Known about the structure:
Number of strands: 11
Bound molecules: pyridoxal-5'-phosphate
CATH superfamily of the largest domain: Type I PLP-dependent aspartate aminotransferase-like (Major domain)
Strand order of the largest sheet: 1-7-6-5-4-2-3
Amino acid sequence: MSDLDPKDWAAFRAEGHRMLDDMLDYVEHIRQRPVWQVIPPEVRASINEPLPTRPTDLRDVHELFMRTVLPYSVGNVHPSFMGWVHGGGTPVGMLADMLAAGLNANLGGRDQMPIEIERQITRWMSSLFGFPETASGVFVTGTSMANLMGILIARRAVLGAAVRSEGLCTHNLVAYTSTDAHGCITQAMDLAGFGTFALHLVAVNEYHQMDVAALQSAITADRARGQQPFLIVGSAGTVNVGAIDDLSALAALAQKESLWFHVDGAYGALGMLSADIAPRLQGIECADSIAFDFHKWGQVPYDAGFLLVRDTMRHMDAFAAPAAYLRREARGLAGGSPWPCDLGPDLSRRFRALATWFTLKVYGSDTLGQMIAETCRLARYLASQIDARPELERLAPVSLNIVCFRFRAADSDADSDRINAEIVADLQESGIAVPSTTIINNTLAIRVAICNHRTRSQDLDALLAGVLSLGTAHLSSLVE
Ligand SMILES: *Cc1c(COP(=O)(O)O)cnc(C)c1O
């Protein structure tokens, strides 16, 4: 039995270069592809086989990938991908991920430069968000995980060390977020053992921001009936419409009421990189913790979520095992404490930080900030085009890079919802553009989130032309 390395390094190297070229071709010529394609049943079936017991040539597996996987992915590299909130990635990030995979570093801990790269990003983010230099940060899969961890840190902070050994047992704790907050906040309350009933969803104003007066009343009323408020989760860029809560007001209220203040800034927090957007995030510097993604507006390849915590001790208190405190004095490779595994539930961790480090260094934060501002400018352009068309109706104010609207279909709301859902599915299947849908004030909206650095105004024009022609066709079939 030999090892798993190539027998013929020269042939392997040649195949590796072909793989690299294929992926560079994919990105360079992405516009020539449909955004997304329906997976043909025979393609879906073609990979279904028993566990391969015998070897297959790398070349054949690569060829299979090119034929069956590459053409049928989500399509978020494409400039006309505007669904959900997906970043477009960059070739720089792709190469950095290859370097990280080659190094095969495990970033759980130990004394190694890869962890210093992660710490450097923490220092950059502390400075970007106005956090103290002593703040701690950790890469995770995404903001869903980072939000859960923020809630676990707040839980440990309010209940003390006992909660880690005794669990929650009974509690009367309540947390607050807005009705427009991401569903992962509710899920995190469940996973953290509080149960979803312990999350009070506060109403939003006409701009879809949490109503601060309603929040204050809810806190006062909950205290009066014996509940113990402990946490406010503000949103910096809601997933539906891109609203930014009044973070200064939430921070002030959290301080007055002695509550933990966590910000879900999944995609919006990196608006700090743009001089236009940063002032609207004021108050974020007062948060106790911020969860956000580099893989959305930051364009780092998936996945690259991040949690930044003001007070490192509070952060470690929630996750570190007793061994973490003992290894403080260790020498050799076992030194370098605190380790990232003391800052979250993961022990084995891939080198996520490298693609973010390359992205920040190669492009520079000014370029990234301009790119972010440009997606917002494009959203305003799209909104103006929609407002100029009597057949279209905008359904929410444009705060950042998200536009929600509908094709004015029929008198009946049910018909309107159905036709707009059909338009979106048709567009996706046509390969012309990929918007998604959401519900705004009980109405189904076509939702366009411009999160890709490759998107241009012509792509939005093509989207609107598609909506208008498909909508008109559906309308006439309704009349018949
Ligand atoms: C995308 C998003 C999330 C979830 O982040 P993941 O990285 O997908 O886990 C949470 N909140 C908001 C506002 C989001 O946009």
